[in-house]
Amino acid sequence: MRRTGYTRASTLGPIAGVVTANGGSIERVFSRADLPVHLLDSPDTLLPLRDHFRLLATASRELRDEAFAARLGRQTSIAGLGVYGKWVTRAPTLLEAMHRAGTSLPHMMQSATRLAIRRFGDEVHWSYELSDPATDGRPQNEMLALWYMIVAIRHFVGAGWLPNRIMVGGLPANARHSIDEQMGVDTVICDRPGTIVFNQRPLMAVNPHLSADLGLGANELARIFDIPAPDDLPGNVRAIIDLELLGGRPDLSRIVRRAGLSKRTLQRRLAELGLSFSDLLKDTLQRRAISLLCQPDQSITEIALMLGYSDPAHFSRAFEKWSGVAPGRWRELAKSGG
Q1: Among 169, 201, 221, residue at a domain's last position
Q2: N or C: which terminus of the chain carries fewer CB neighbours within 10 A?
Q3: What is the pTM of this model?
Q4: Cβ(97)–Cβ(155) under 8 Å?
Q5: How large is the C-alpha radius of gyration of the chain?
Q6: Final residue of a domain: which of 162, 196, 221?
């Protein structure tokens, strides 16, 4: 399987608003990137990093703006990163927050990446480093990541804080002026990982929003390790099925294309594990159905359509076959604790 990291869709931030405000079409951007636009309504969905990169590159081309991701980054919020953002911003000091951000990033938010802290005299270099091989859109992704790092620091030291300079690679030299303008600081375009550089003085800044509630709940903790490892074939296929479900019932040909495998190779490798594609599809549909049934604002008809069923009767029959009860009855039992 083509090796890739994953990121949660929440890392896209307010991409729809920024594209639209600058004269672009978000529907066209998602279509050209071959991604379901409903991803915007599903922030916890895992997205292969190469698809995330391509989406940012497509938006940049749509607007003819090399600084698009920096423009997008200015509108981001660490709170928009859900459980990961909550964990980072509950640290007692900025230095602890930076350590939390680095150690939990590959488990909670984005794999195949790391955040590295290095000191050179009084300067701190905080770098965003990628092991994912994808290249299209990589510089846009780096600029967006640097803004998330900046807004994390701002949580501790104030909304107007900016680093002394940033370093980013893979961009044309003539883009520097527009990037400087969006980042608000001098940009060094170089062949090295994206980095923000600042004086070490803020590192021990105490969290001004500190409260007694410093941990995460059980439901939040359960999500920490749901990003599949590169060699976890069933986990990778389930993640792609989840993504494809946002655009309708997943088709095996689309799954293998996104996974970078032939149909025969995928079926053979799953068979070696005692599994089949239909097993994984059924498992994913069950988990997704239960998750949606726990949301009282979703009707059975809406859930059926979201899972790719042609009508609620087909969904109800399938769900009853899985669970032994009809979806409406399952919802009643779950509500009553029965």
Answers
A1: 221
A2: C
A3: 0.90
A4: yes
A5: 21
A6: 221
- Residue owning tokens 């893979």: 170
Is 228 inside a domain boundary? no
Tokens 């509950």 identify what position?
Answer: 90
C-beta of residue 258 within 8 angstroms of C-beta of residue 48: yes
What CATH number is given to the structural domain containing 168? 3.90.1520
pLDDT at res. 230: 86
CATH value at residue 296: 1.10.10.60
Q: Which helix (H) or strand (E) holds 60?
A: helix 49-63
Buried b (16+ CB within 10 A) or exposed e, 205-222: bebeeeeeeeebeeeeee
**Per-residue pLDDT, 61:** 96
Burial of 338 (0-12, 13-18, 19+ CB in 10 A): exposed
Please tell me the predicted confidence (pLDDT) of residue 215.
66
| pLDDT 10s digits, 306-333 | 888 888 899 999 999 888 899 988 988 8
In whole angstroms, what is the distance from residue 238 CA to residue 281 CA?
7
At residue 238, the pLDDT reads: 93
Low-confidence ranges of the chain (pLDDT < 50): none
Q: 95 lies in a domain?
A: yes
CB atoms closer than 10 angstroms to residue 41: 10
Q: List the domain range (segments joined by +) for residue 302.
A: 233-336
pLDDT score for 250: 86
